[in-house]
Amino acid sequence: MLNNVSLYNFKNHKEVEYKFDFFNLIVWKNGSGKTNILESIYLILNSHVYWWYKINRLVNFFWENLFVKGYIESMDLIPKEFMITFDSNLLKTSYIFNKSKITRSKYLETLRHTAVFFSPAEMNIIYLGPTMRRDFLDEVCLLFDTSFLKIKSDYSKILKNRNKLLKNINEWNASKSDLKYWNDVFIKQATLYYNIRKKFLDFIYGNLSKIEQILGNKYKLKFEYISKVDLQNIESSISDYIEKNIDRDIIIGHTYIWPHLDDFEFKVQFWKEYYNSWEILSRWENKSILIWLKFLEIDYYLQKHSENIVILLDDIFSELDDEHIATVLDFSKRFQTFISAQNLPVFLHNNANISVINI
């Protein structure tokens, strides 16, 4: 369990410490820094910034460095100190365990906790653009498999170099034969990327009946992953597509087969056809799908991280009705939970186990 966090120059928190219990409510007015506390917990437990932002955006505007420190009590009841620091001048992030610097991978291996963020934006990703849905998939991939961070970083560098070469060939500053090396490394890296993403996609496919059950088994659902890549033959399909479309890539100067052009949809059977869930289902029913997608995300982590899950609920109850609120709270009760709100919600008035944190 996360016992407390200390923040220094973390966004609007200059220097402060917060102590936690198993069930925590962070209350105060909008703009007071409630979400920032949840983001600090996310950072200390997951070792990266929520939603793929850069860490420098977390530094207080008037200062050049920050640190976030947390104490975790494990099964042996011995508190362990974890700290992340960032220096804006050196653009350097350091990971520290019990006052000794360690690598990021060692930090995560030692910590063995995962924070899962429920945000108002994620409660609407069915209605928003595909970038947010792709970011959601990548977030899950990273939190499940720490090697994904390097895979994605290397992939982005390879993609950038290949696109640069495509433009040079189009402008007669390079030869088409120069593409062979970058084609080969692109195919290899994209295959690694897809292999990790596919594990979570397969988990969703295998547990789709759970979402149908929460909807009262009234609908036949289909989860559809939209991609130019055949996920049953990833490497060969990428290779074939690259070979067939190489001239087009040269003309436009971009690679048009890659994970960040993909998307996913939930579809509902109506008569003999399937339609997007947002076209057929009510807003309440689409919220149910999204909540259970987050529950599946947690179940996916539990395969690897035992019960060391921390749930962060960032002002999402304004987006939910009483039934959905009860569903989320019931699911969350076996995990350490943090809720941010402007005031004490009515549904928590009689909860004697809640620890209220006033900023």
Structural class: alpha/beta
CATH topology of the largest domain: Rossmann fold
- Number of H- or I-type helical stretches: 11
Low-confidence stretches: none
Main beta sheet: 6 strands, antiparallel
What's the level 1 CATH class of the largest domain? Alpha Beta
User: What fraction, in percent, of the residue positions are helical?
Assistant: 40-55%
* Element pattern in H and E: EEEHEEEEHEHHHHEHHEEHHEHEE
The total domain count is: 2
- Number of separate strands: 14
CATH architecture of the largest domain: 3-Layer(aba) Sandwich
* Average pLDDT metric: 89
Strand order of the largest sheet: 2-1-4-5-6-7
Radius of gyration using CA atoms only: 22 Å
Q: State the fourth-level CATH superfamily of the largest domain.
A: P-loop containing nucleotide triphosphate hydrolases
- How far apart are the termini? 21 Å
Range of strand content: 15-25%
Q: What is this entry, summarized?
A:
The chain has eleven helices and 14 strands.
Give an overview of the whole structure.
The protein contains 11 helices and 14 strands. With 359 residues, the chain is α/β, with parallel strands linked by helices. The protein folds into 2 domains: 2-113 and 308-358, 3-Layer(aba) Sandwich (Rossmann fold), CATH 3.40.50; 133-280, RecF/RecN/SMC, N-terminal domain (Glutathione S-transferase Yfyf (Class Pi), Chain A, domain 2, Up-down Bundle), CATH 1.20.1050. The strands form 3 sheets. A 6-stranded antiparallel beta sheet has the order 2-1-4-5-6-7, covered by helices on one side. It has a 5-stranded parallel beta sheet with strand order 8-12-13-3-14. β10 (263-270) and β11 (273-276) form a beta hairpin. The longest helix has 28 residues, at 179-206. The model has no long low-confidence stretch (mean pLDDT 89).
